[in-house]
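Hey forum,

I'm writing up a methods section and want to include a predicted complex as supplementary material. The small molecule is S-adenosylmethionine. I've pasted the protein sequence and the SMILES. Can someone with a working setup run it? I'll credit the forum in the acknowledgements.
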Amino acid sequence: MADFFSKSWINMRMQYDDAARSDILINFLRNNSKYSDHNLIDMCSGTGSFLIWLLKNNVTFKKNILIDHDTTLLKSVKSNFRKYLKDKYVIKSNSNNLNLILTSKNSNSIDVYVEKSDCEKFNLNENQSFIISYSAAIDLMSKSSITNSLSNMKKNNILFYSLCFDGKVKWSPSHNFDKYILSFFNSHQMTDKGFGKALGYQAIDYLTMKAKKLGYRVTEKESAWKIVNSHEKDKNFMRRYILDIKKALYHMEGIDRSMLSEWYLSKKESIYQKKLKLCVGHKDILIAR
Ligand SMILES: C[S@@+](CC[C@H](N)C(=O)[O-])C[C@H]1O[C@@H](n2cnc3c(N)ncnc32)[C@H](O)[C@@H]1O
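Reply by user p_vandermeer:
Happy to help. Structure tokens for the complex are below, copy them as they are.
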């Protein structure tokens, strides 16, 4: 059984995700007006971060469907929209469900349908065309779930997998145990995270190889987190990042807990001294016909 994701962690990473996201989807939509009537499905939407990012960047779709299997995360979509989009939209909701209607200052309205479902079981309406997004989710997926996601390339649908973790984490200054910790972290990423055995960073190669074999166009761009701990927020984020790594790896078979502790305490000290930089590798991948 997969672990559920922490709401505070997803919300905490939002500003770093926003800074990291590439422009490939925005440019693609700008240069291909035929996609302007598409609707959006955000698979594994969590608390709605990806749609919030789109709307902040003035990328709008009339109908937006957010899908996640975690009700706790979906319940905070409304408060997140109110927090981040209040200057742009009036946000109304029906108290009977999680759905929202967003009306902009120029009276254009957007529907947001929030649905608790397993992404694998969600049936696409074949009469409509969609941009189907997976943000910060591909490394959680198994081979079969990636194959399944590619089967949604019907009609003119587009697939957009953003913030795909590529297995590379660079600390500056580095620590002798960084490689050791990263190899355990990458193994941990290959356990069940909601789709059966996850591919972790290997999901990128698997997806792009499969998509190319199927004859689709694949566009990739870097979207790494580049974090310099110059503000208190950055320090808190890095502290949380190393703490979550420590907690995740602690019970893994074969891990040397004294090395894990030493690594953790050394990073904590470096964060405190304000001298640490962190780069976590991600890629954005767009798949179209
Ligand atoms: C790392 S979070 C990413 C959340 C969001 N997309 C973002 O960019 O902040 C991964 C999300 O995948 C969801 N998830 C994992 N397996 C799922 C499944 N089989 N069906 C639906 N959601 C799933 C989790 O509940 C979680 O919200």
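Some notes you might quote in the supplement: The chain has a mean pLDDT of 95. The domain at 7-168+194-228+281-288 is CATH 3.40.50.150 (Rossmann fold).
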